[in-house]
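batch_manifest entry 22 of 60
target: Bifunctional uridylyltransferase/uridylyl-removing enzyme
source organism: Pseudovibrio exalbescens
requested by: lab member K.T.
priority: normal
notes from requester: please return tokens only, no post-processing; we will run our own comparison against the previous entry in this batch. if the run fails, retry once and flag.
--- input ---
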Amino acid sequence: MTPSALGIAHLVPVDTILDEFSALVKEHGGNAGNPKVRSAVLARLKELYQSARQEIEQMLFDDGRGRRCAERLSMVQDQIIILIYEFASRHVYPTSSRSKAERLAVIAVGGYGRGTLAPQSDVDLLFLWPYKQTPWGDQMVEYMLYMLWDMGLKVGHATRSLNDCIRQAKADMTIRTALLEARHIWGDKPLYDDLLRKFDKDIVAQTGKEFIEAKLAERDERHERQGSSRYLVEPNVKESKGGLRDLNTLFWIGKYFYRVNSSAELVKVGVFSRAQLNRFRKNQDFLWAVRCHLHFLTGRADDRLSFNVQREIAERLGYKDHPGMRDVERFMKHYFLVAKDVGDLTRIFAAALEEQHVKTAPVISRFLNAMVPGRKPRKTSIKGTRDFLIENGRLIHASTDIFKKDPVNLIRVFYLIDRNNLDMHPELLKLIRRSLKLINASLRENDQANRLFLKVLTSRSDPEIVLRSMNEAGVLGRFLPEFGKVVAMMQFNMYHHYTVDEHLIHSIGVLSQIERGEGSNDHPLATNLIKTVPNRTVLYVAMLLHDIAKGRPEDHSTAGARIARKLCPRLGLNPAETDTVAWLIQHHLEMSVVAQSRDLNDPQTIKDFCNVVQSLERLKLLLILTVADIRAVGPGVFNGWKGQLLRTLYYEAETIMSGGHGQLSHRQRLDYAKQELLEALPDWPEDEKAAYLDRHYPAYWLRVDLDRKIRHANLIRTTDKEAEHLATSVEPHAFEGITEITVLAPDHPRLLSVIAQACYAAGANIVDAQIDTTKDGLALDTIFVRRELPEDADELRRGQRISSIIKSALRGTEPIPEPSNKQRNALQKNKAFDIKTSVNVSNSWSEHFTVVEAIGLDRPGLLFNLTRALSELNLNIASAHVVTFGEKAVDVFYVTDLTGQKISNVGRQDAIKARITEAFDGAAEPVPKPVRPRRRRAPMAS
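--- output ---
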């Protein structure tokens, strides 16, 4: 295209610039090799290039045409290459007559060969000569490359003869793909034409099947590397499923198999309809706009839509806030709808290939599986229906009017897929999409349709796959309009890895896995409990609907419960089942929040939780739903530590609700705990045992488990024999995914603050902390840090390194190390989010402690700031509970004043809120001084 065709008004014509260069050479006596000439030429090229890029970026803002932006950038790059080539051939290395070997073609390959270029992409070039390298050609290539490099461009290049290209393309699929899109820029055009003819004859015409198989295998590997879902909330615009590379793959296969040169020709050969081609181009234009904005914004070739750029990209593209949805969430929803559309085009393309008899039926999760030319489809009937048939293991319609005759077939089709373990034929998918308007109020209220849907949802096979297929086809969002509102909806936070609809569908898959007993080692309690649930339907319905009200101005749990009360009767649930589903949705976050952010050793915590749950049946259902919900958030979000907290809360609540609480008196429980430890220390002298029992306050005996009591006893006994009362112990816990670090030191109000700062410096994330004080002035602080290394021996060494930093910090002998780059990067990433800090101070959440709950934007060093603030407020910390939900931190502290009493004065509570808010919003600072021993009164016994 010409500059005028692409709308670049201020780009100076090539001939005009070349005249400038010729005049410049004359000014220096015709010596083009003069360094001053080269510097002046280079400066002029840089000026032209930068001014054109600035104009193109502004044009992108003005017209929003992403594909056109990439074409403009490609055309400008062409102009630069032509200018360098002509200047070099006319003035630097002129020849009066060239031999047959002194021919050179400059060819764009790869994405640049398609005539598109992202702002920060590599410029991929092929320098082609006929049969051997000549000194003139070598000098030309070297001069061009150094000029491009000195302009600051990233150039990927190859220098080959014609025969080299063909030989290497036969052996290397990457080179073959690059040559498939070869485009002549400048130089010897007949030589370029010879390459195309030879490439088409010797390679393309004979290797269509091989090429398609390789490209599809490459695509599958790329998807696996990027994350198999197209609904990951930080997608790669180029490489992720549903991105530009998928569209490129379609075109590569089409060009190779159908021998076409443009996307428009795919209509002529029957691959796409005109409407489908327009969708292809529209999606491509949007993805290119996102990618170009991303490169312009960041100034680097990074194609990942990370959280810290999504908001700015949304603003660049002109998205605005709507009630319940921010601008960035509306932008990302559009992105995921486009990614979904790319998937639809992929399936349509697969159907066209199948009509050419180039493949067999795939399994449900693959695009193409194997290529078997000439195989004829074989159709068989299905028992109980005449509207559908099975063709090569896939479901297909018997006639094109089956949905008009009976709209219930739009639901029945997925029931049959599930019952018979079939894939859907691409032609059936196309018919379904054309029939979506038949899903109306009448069908939604149809009893048979709702029964079939419920059977799909509660299937004992793999409901996740069928529900995802139903969603991809557009049926699920039409049949359940409330679900349709969250399709492709992104939640702008670092906690959820998927869009809302994908999370809901995936949670059904996790629930089904739990029911089948898969992964029972990761969540044994949920696996056992689900076998005892009398009504599994309410669990599956609640799981599908638990986040269905996301994106609304009101609380999604409350709104979701209201939706459930309306929807459940339609699905055939009775009033009692409806009430249970609504309750589960209303309280689906309750167990997770309590388990992770409350002191489970505090009786008031358990009492309050039991008052909410009220029945053992609900407790079971809530535990199972909570486990599945957390596991479906994303890889690695659920771990053994969270599982242990949930189990502890479950068993404590079960004890109360089953009437077991109070069978032993407080004194009996205390005596039992002490006797249990005595029996576990058979080698200790009796007088030493008696003395040790008197060192701990009652709260310690009732809340610490036996294994930990034994480790504490041995640690204290060993330390008593040493001059310094400072020691640590490390215990990795593989199943829970945490490492326990115990610190024994002279008590001091700022002790936990120093430990937190040392952990921050060591790159350790604290997830929980328990603080105990002995009667003789020692603090026994146990912190739990998130595990990082898979092997216990390696994690033990890591824990010992953290312990060493803690001890140095407490002694004040060495400065605390600077935070790592990883921590600084985490801080930078969190800046993309805006969470208003809130602080609650409650005396009702605990019988003996004031509970301080701080919620806000997480950052490295936060716990240090908060614990230091509490110590400056003269508060004793009895326990600390740290939980993060992506970028949001919830830090909860159980505190007393220095006399061991609750904070009852309202004025002082307000002062605590103000100081903790200030600490939450501040920045991490180094520890000012080493800690000096100081006794503090112990907290009251619980």
